[in-house]
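Hello Y.,

Per our agreement to keep a running log of every chain we model this quarter, I'm adding this entry. I've kept the format consistent with earlier entries: sequence first, then predicted structure.
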Amino acid sequence: MSLNVKKGDTVVMIAGKDKGKTGKVTACDPRSGRVVVEGCNIVTKHTKPRGANQPGGKNKMAGPVDVSNVQIICPACNKATRVANKIEGDKKLRVCHKCGASLEPKKVEKKAKKAKADKAETPVAEEAKEKKTAKKAPAKKTSKKAEAPVTEPTATETTEQAENGGEN
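Predicted structure for the entry above:
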């Protein structure tokens, strides 16, 4: 089953005991067609103690709800809407059925990478890179034999040298 809701989307509950509440989707299960919305469908889970560091007790957590009981909120028009699909090039995008705005989350990572690339083109950044590489270049791996500390002769070695007259 294909879901029109993804993790991180803001949705509104349209049915059930939490009708009208909004929250973010924290988990999706396409096989069962269920989603977990934070702050909605709160259930109590009883847990047994599983050791000294895991005490038992009653834990309140968000339970899964059927995907048909939620509706996505469009970030552009701030209304609960159905999801329409639009094909642009090779990609299939989710769009708002009411206003046509994209429901796909904006990716910040690409902007950050572009900003880093722009900074790398400046001469100051190039000089900094050269300094870093210059510092890394002289560092060579040395063998463990060369790093071995010089030890003083033991008592038996000094007595042998004294008997031989200081000659080896």
